[in-house]
Specification:
This protein is an alpha/beta fold. The chain is built from 5 helices and 4 strands; from the N terminus they run H-H-E-H-E-H-E-E-H. It has a 4-stranded mixed beta sheet with strand order 1-2-3-4, with no helix packed on it. It is globular and about 35 Å long. The model is unreliable at 96-109 (pLDDT under 50).
Length: 109
């Protein structure tokens, strides 16, 4: 279950959680977005979400991009960028840096 997965991750050391780079989510419709965000907060180097039981759908792209943006604004999952589907589709959901980060990357122009 999702609750068991969260408890398992919380019991691991931060270094062990940093080894996870892909989150595989089955039954996307039944899992609350808050639970996925909670898991993402525990996985600082996460960069991909894979939905092995879903074909590509643009509304799902939008939903994942929204909560990914929320996580990035909160400072977790800065590398999160890919959403993969069972049909082989791979979508880049990377967003612009948070407003607080915008001043740290100055251009020479």
């Amino acid at each position: 279950t999702v609750v068991a997965a969260i408890k398992n991750l919380e019991s691991r050391a931060p270094d062990a959680r940093a080894k996870f780079v892909r989150l595989i989510v089955w039954n996307w419709k039944t899992i609350a977005a808050q639970a996925i965000v909670r898991i993402m907060k525990l996985l600082p180097l996460l960069h991909e979400i894979f939905l092995p039981d879903r074909d590509h759908h643009c509304l799902l792209d939008f939903a994942v991009a929204n909560f990914t943006a929320s996580c990035q604004v909160q400072g977790c999952c800065p590398r999160m960028q890919l959403l993969r589907y069972r049909d082989g589709s791979c979508i880049n959901v990377r967003i612009l840096p948070a407003a607080s980060d915008a001043g740290s990357s100055k251009s020479g122009a």
